[in-house]
Design brief:
Layout (H helix, E strand, L loop, with lengths): L1 E8 L8 E12 L2 E8 L1 H54 L3 H12 L1 H8 L1 H54 L4 E4 H18 L2 E7 L5 E4 L1 H17 L8 E10 L2 E8 L6 H4 L17 H11 L3 E5 L7 E8 L1
Parallel strand pairs: 5-7
Antiparallel strand pairs: 1-2, 2-3, 4-6, 7-8, 8-10, 9-10
Amino acid sequence: MVNKVYSFDDPGYSNGADQHFTVTINKMEPGSIMVALDDITESVAREKQMQQTLLDKAVEQGKFEIASGMLHDIGNAVVGFGSYLNRIRQIQQNRDITNLENLAGFLKNQLPELTSAMGKEKSQAVISLLNGTVQSLKQTNQQMNSYVTDQFNIITHIQEILSIQRQYTAVQHSQQRAPVNLRSVINDSLAMLFATMDKKRITVSLDISQKETLIKADRTKLMQVLLNLLKNSIDSFETDIKERKIHIRLCSVNGSLTIEIRDNGSGFDVQTGERLFERGFTTKRSGSGLGLANCKSIIDSHSGLISITSPGPGQGTTAIIKFKI
């Protein structure tokens, strides 16, 4: 038996579209053969359409990853700019001109002695110079604080725009959910934040189940949630905390896969805890109040549960995410 596929383009057949046939030749007996001709044009067309669909999907995936990467890079740059503004603000707050004011007051009270030692004109010139310097420094501090505040407002606006754009990009991408390994999501999130944690001397410990940790999910969105929660833990460490620890646990409990992120950072009070997922609420100077609200929306869309609790200020924070399996 011989089986071959032949294709041809006949302008007079089916509006000139390419046609595809299989030709099967069977030798029946000496001196006779049977030839079978099957039209497989439709099946070939379906296969081509499927290949084009896969190609288009790959192109869209590439565009989405490029856009997500650009938004992520812009976001990192904005966060870096905000950290430098925080340093400027701290320097401004540490610029104490009280001693200079006290000196000006002291010299004013000692005006008779100064006049006797330096003369009236010189003594008054010194006092005027000090008073002018004090007033100038006060005005400069007020202006700098105003400028820094304006820059923080701009940063907040940019972060809000980026957050909206991320959501829009994710919706446009409309990625079909596929099996996602939560162990891999955690490891990749930690890899992205390793440099920051190392710089801030944060110790990370892992307790990850060796059992199956797959769920059907949107991997990009889960990465967004994990990165947000880990960044919050990183930001919670105040300067006076010497041993900075983050513990991550992944386990299967009562038919649910649970991710627990626990830190020994600054924590929060009950009133703050009640508003954490409220859109627009933030405890950070440069925060937009959108991060945790978006996290909750993502987890809700995966039929999961998310909670963030703290025993109180200075007693750390625990974030827990649960997925049904």
